[in-house]
Amino acid sequence: MVYCPKEGGFSNKLSELNIPFEVIPYKNWADTFLLPGYWLLPFRYFQNKMILSSLLKKVNTFGPDLIHTNSTVLGMGAYIADQLQIPHVWHIREMAKLHYNMRFFPSTDHFYKYLSKAARCIVISEAVKNEMIGKRKINSTLVFNGVLHAEHFKSGYPSPVQKEAINFLIIGMLHPKKNQLLALQGFSKVAKDFPKARLKIVGTGRRLYEQQLIAFCRTNQIESQVEFAGYVSNPQKIYEQADVVLMCSEHEAMGRVTVEAMAYGKPVIGLRSGATPELIEDGKEGFLFDKNPENLGKHMRYFLENPAAIETMGRNGFKSAKEKFTIDTYVDKMYAIFASIKK
User: What angle do CA 260, 1, 120 make, to 5 degrees?
Assistant: First the structure.
């Protein structure tokens, strides 16, 4: 049984797969500091308390062997597991404070009180473990997210398409932490020397930040080489059209985009931050760069001057994604963890 807080793409998928679910309007117990949702946390805390008693009855009737909570920003599963003395498996998928500047209500200590009670915590990278668990005595296991099914890799490395120019891609929510501005600053270091080079920015987000990005392109006269593609629901074609993918996000908990790029045979230029160094080996599946435009531009220039390296590093990334990041491998590991926990 899946209890989700609202209807949407997730509940639609559950329905499509005939997985039983109920919509219960529980709320997050964490939100970004000083944003509107942050000030609602006390109100949401009492909303959850009111929902808890009826939800306990539902869960008790269902009689689960364990409870799995899919994010640290959700506390309801921890409350239920504690009340009914059911083993709790808690997925830590984000560096809540470091990446999103989130605060827990009523306190961080309250969060760790319940996290320490979990039968198992699943961390999606060593970076997440170091940030969210540190030296605390919490039972944790590293399981990388699965991104594509093993079936995707059966056809082998995709044959490269000969092009006149190199296409760079950055994909994700438009947000200062995702560093699209840094990508533009790096690209501006090479754009004039390589007028056929292109940078595609995929995603939507903060309007003011988007305007800042557009203004940078105009000021640096690179509008003709930069495309703002907006939101794309299925990015497969976007990856296939790209040559090199940029991961400029700070404190990335794992980086789905990085692994997707590797799975489509694209080398990645990744910021040396968060879990990105765990996913790509510098000089093998791409490059790691320090947070400055010159360093990023240097690696972009390398691919522009050495296009044959795109296929070489792309093949390495494809192999690594096949070995480490399939959904099939992820499911097997998660099932083994669930099966090892006794009620």
Answer: 65
